[in-house]
C-alpha cells in the first residue's frame, strides 16, 4: 500500500513538472513568434555596419565586420558612443554583431 502511494505521488509530481515544461516551451515559442512578426511588420530602426551605404545612421546600430568605434563615430557623427552605451566596458573590445545606440551630434562628412 505504501509503495503505491509513493508511486502515485511520484507520478503526480513528474506529470506536474512535465506540464510546467510544456507551458514554458509554449510561452517561449509564442513570444519568439510574436517578436519575429513585430520585427517584420514595423519599420526597422536598426542599421548593420557594412550595409550602411549612403544612408544616415539609425538610432540602433549593429557593428559590422572590421569596424571600430572610431570609424562608427566618424560615419555616424556621434563622438560619445562609449558614454551613451554603458555595456561597452572597453572601447577596444568591439565585435561584429554588437548593438550600440547612436545619437548624432554633428553631420556626417
TrEMBL record:
Question: Which CDD domains does the record cross-reference, listed alphabetically?
Answer: LysM (cd00118)
* Ranges where the LysM domain occurs: 61-103
Signal peptide positions are: 1-32
Which terms are listed as keywords in the entry? Signal
Superkingdom of origin:
Eukaryota
Which Pfam family, any one, appears in the UniProt record? LysM
User: InterPro entries in the record, alphabetically?
Assistant: LysM, LysM_dom_sf
The record's listing under PANTHER family reads: EMBRYO SAC 1, OS04G0572800 PROTEIN
Q: What is this protein called?
A: LysM domain-containing protein
UniProt source species: Linum tenue
